[in-house]
């Protein structure tokens, strides 16, 4: 029961590994309102920079069309060429502003998160066509939030448009009777006012929506304590398995050391807390440590030495020093040469004394 509750209660912040996996799947914090803000800002900037020249180009083009309307061929081929020509001239006039607005849309995604190349969002999955999951997406909490946000946004933007256009109602009513040459200038001025008003509102909307999306994304990635433990086991290894492996290694090392004790020339002890078995033969530059241990292992080394008639010499300071400074299958350090030589010399003298005639 505890494990089940732990798994469902995701109260812990996501780990860096969990966040990175989500980003690789294409699951990132992204606000559509930020994209809208970038596109609108780019549109306002393009209108301010290229609006007059674009308006003049389109005005000249359409004025020529209206002036020469009587000469437009009525046959199918001529009419097609005429439509294509008008479309090309219009596209040339608005191509640069539209391209800059498209680049602004790409930049908005880069600002929110780094560039990603993943096929995860478009990979076919049964969950994407599941009716139950579809109903959850349509009538779920997120869908309700998006619906309310859309209504609020429409109301606010509509209010801004009303506040800008209502004072111009009389001027707009006279447009029908005005000279067409004044129409582009009026349209440009009103368009800039509308863009500025809408961008001011969308700035607040975009910031609030991004904070909401980021908070929702982090909440969606939260983990339970069990998930954190499982991730730790996967990345660092199961502590129980690591402890078992360590225990097996230590057991094998102890067995190998005990098997090496019969090769020793002498065992130096503390007398029971430390034991260091040294091997020395003619031709060696210095004695080599073939086994060492503490407490129970030291007792095993001593028992094995006595079983094979290996001399056991009690020298507590030397035993502690050798245990701390010499590794297995390593020669003793030079500072211990004299003390070990005295011990080995003492052992050799005992052997000569007790050797049969």
TrEMBL record:
<protein>
    <recommendedName>
        <fullName>Flagellar biosynthetic protein FlhB</fullName>
    </recommendedName>
</protein>
<feature type="region of interest" description="Disordered">
    <location>
        <begin position="1"/>
        <end position="20"/>
    </location>
</feature>
<keyword id="KW-0282">Flagellum</keyword>
<comment type="similarity">
    <text>Belongs to the type III secretion exporter family.</text>
</comment>
<keyword id="KW-0969">Cilium</keyword>
<keyword id="KW-0653">Protein transport</keyword>
<keyword id="KW-0812">Transmembrane</keyword>
<keyword id="KW-1003">Cell membrane</keyword>
<comment type="function">
    <text>Required for formation of the rod structure in the basal body of the flagellar apparatus. Together with FliI and FliH, may constitute the export apparatus of flagellin.</text>
</comment>
<keyword id="KW-0813">Transport</keyword>
<dbReference type="GO" id="GO:0044780">
    <property type="term" value="P:bacterial-type flagellum assembly"/>
</dbReference>
<dbReference type="Pfam" id="PF01312">
    <property type="entry name" value="Bac_export_2"/>
</dbReference>
<keyword id="KW-1133">Transmembrane helix</keyword>
<dbReference type="InterPro" id="IPR029025">
    <property type="entry name" value="T3SS_substrate_exporter_C"/>
</dbReference>
<feature type="transmembrane region" description="Helical">
    <location>
        <begin position="186"/>
        <end position="212"/>
    </location>
</feature>
<dbReference type="InterPro" id="IPR006136">
    <property type="entry name" value="FlhB"/>
</dbReference>
<keyword id="KW-0472">Membrane</keyword>
<dbReference type="GO" id="GO:0005886">
    <property type="term" value="C:plasma membrane"/>
</dbReference>
<dbReference type="InterPro" id="IPR006135">
    <property type="entry name" value="T3SS_substrate_exporter"/>
</dbReference>
<keyword id="KW-0966">Cell projection</keyword>
<feature type="transmembrane region" description="Helical">
    <location>
        <begin position="143"/>
        <end position="166"/>
    </location>
</feature>
<keyword id="KW-1005">Bacterial flagellum biogenesis</keyword>
<feature type="compositionally biased region" description="Basic and acidic residues">
    <location>
        <begin position="7"/>
        <end position="20"/>
    </location>
</feature>
<dbReference type="GO" id="GO:0009306">
    <property type="term" value="P:protein secretion"/>
</dbReference>
<keyword id="KW-1006">Bacterial flagellum protein export</keyword>
């Amino acid at each position: 029961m505890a494990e089940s509750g732990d798994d469902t209660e995701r109260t812990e912040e996501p780990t860096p590994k969990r966040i990175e996996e989500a980003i690789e799947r294409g699951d990132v914090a992204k606000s559509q309102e930020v994209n809208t803000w970038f596109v609108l800002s780019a549109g306002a900037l393009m209108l301010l920079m290229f609006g007059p020249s674009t308006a003049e180009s389109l005005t000249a083009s359409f004025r020529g069309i209206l002036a020469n309307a009587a000469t437009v061929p009525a046959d199918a081929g001529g009419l097609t060429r005429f439509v294509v020509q008008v479309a090309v001239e219009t596209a040339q006039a608005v191509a640069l502003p539209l391209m800059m607005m498209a680049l602004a849309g790409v930049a908005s995604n880069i600002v929110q998160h780094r560039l990603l190349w993943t096929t995860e969002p478009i990979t076919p999955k049964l969950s994407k066509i599941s009716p139950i999951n579809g109903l959850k997406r349509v009538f779920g909490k997120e869908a309700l939030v998006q619906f309310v946000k859309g209504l609020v946004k429409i109301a606010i933007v509509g209010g801004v448009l009303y506040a800008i256009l209502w004072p111009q109602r009389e001027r707009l009513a006279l447009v029908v009777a005005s000279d067409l040459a004044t129409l582009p200038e009026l349209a440009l001025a009103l368009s800039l006012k509308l863009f500025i008003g809408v961008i001011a509102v969308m700035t607040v909307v975009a910031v609030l929506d991004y904070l909401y999306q980021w908070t929702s994304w982090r909440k969606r990635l939260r983990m339970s304590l069990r998930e954190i433990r499982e991730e730790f086991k996967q990345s660092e290894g199961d502590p129980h398995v690591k402890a078992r492996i360590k225990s097996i290694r230590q057991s094998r090392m102890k067995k190998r050391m005990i098997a090496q004790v019969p090769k020793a020339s002498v065992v130096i002890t503390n007398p029971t807390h430390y034991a260091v078995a040294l091997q020395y033969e003619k031709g060696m530059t210095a004695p080599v440590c073939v086994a060492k241990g503490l407490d129970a292992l030291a007792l095993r080394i001593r028992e094995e030495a006595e079983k094979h008639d290996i001399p056991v010499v009690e020298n507590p300071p030397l035993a502690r020093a050798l245990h701390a400074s010499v590794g297995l299958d390593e020669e003793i350090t030079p500072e211990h040469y004299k003390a070990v030589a005295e011990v080995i010399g003492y052992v050799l003298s005992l052997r000569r004394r007790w050797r049969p005639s």
